Amino acid sequence: MSERYANYQRLAFDRPADRILRITFNRPERYNALDAIGHKEITYVWREVDEDPDIDAVILTGAGKAFSAGGDFEMVEKIIDDFETRARTWKEARDLVYNLINCGKPVISAINGPAVGAGLVAGLMADISIVARSVSLTDGHTRLGVAAGDHAAIIWPLLCGMAKAKYYLLTCDRLSGEEAERIGLVSLCVDDDMLQDRALAVAERLRDGAQSAIRWTKYSLNNWLRMAGPTFDASTALEMLGFTGPEASEGVASLKEKRDPSFPKGSPL
């Protein structure tokens, strides 16, 4: 394994086949929830991947029962309480999406369990997303009490259409793996015991293909996402603004206490 990946603390790396890198969210005791260290690592690892001359395809998955449960409560509470944390998280949230867009290597996500927050970002921003049949997906932002930032505005309408995007992002309803595939939110849905094998087979097919053709095709298609950049930037800014208000505090408290939220009625808007 290249020394460039030696110092990561929340991500594990291995090579399941020649010129294929597998990145694994590696905090299984916390369902791969991301603290400040993990959030930074998943944001900037894609620059390392882009510059690595020894790999042609990447698989992203999670250790244990989860893909990634998003930001842990400690991280979210610090975003609410501390301006510097909030500003840094905003920058990382933007960089995560743009780094995935601009990474030249094709990325395949093998979504093996719950995927929330930055985990869901990486799972759905992957070039090819494969979800296990038992998995259900939800964006969850409005349930937390903040706008659906992260990645939703830049890619959900392209993947599944505006009507479905609005329904699932506004209500936070869960999608089964099969429904996510049916509406186009993910590329493929497969039986749980086939997930890793299918992801590796796709990665090997991309590795064995014409590299410049594959990478330039990815670059061209991602111009659709680049054109949506201003929409995405606004959504992440509004998400961070929401962390300064009472809805986010109630959202976090209700999740920690495992109860329905009681959000303030009305709005100054």
Describe the overall structure:
With 269 residues, the chain is an alpha/beta fold. It has a single domain (3-256), classed as 2-enoyl-CoA Hydratase, Chain A, domain 1. 51% of the residues lie in helices and 15% in strands. The chain is built from 13 helices and ten strands. The strands form three sheets. The chain has a six-stranded mixed beta sheet, with helices on both faces. It has a two-stranded parallel ribbon with strand order 4-6. A hairpin with a 2-residue loop joins β1 (11-17) and β2. α2 (73-81) packs across α3 (83-102) and α3 runs parallel beside α4. The relative contact order is 0.14. The model has no long low-confidence stretch (mean pLDDT 96).
Write the layout of secondary structure elements.
Layout: E1 11-17, E2 20-25, H1 36-51, E3 57-62, E4 68-69, H2 73-81, H3 83-102, E5 107-111, E6 115-116, H4 117-125, E7 128-132, E8 136-137, H5 141-144, H6 152-160, H7 162-171, E9 175-176, H8 177-182, E10 188-190, H9 195-207, H10 211-221, H11 223-227, H12 229-242, H13 246-256
Helix proportion = 40-55%
Strand order of the largest sheet: 1-2-3-5-7-10
Coarse shape: globular
Give the end-to-end Cα distance, rounded to a whole number of Å.
52 Å
Largest sheet: 6 strands, mixed
What is the overall pLDDT average?
Answer: 96
How much of the sequence lies in strands comes to: 5-15%
CATH class: Alpha Beta
Number of domains: 1
- Which architecture name does CATH use? Alpha-Beta Complex
Quaternary class? single chain
Number of DSSP-assigned strands: 10
Low-confidence stretches: none
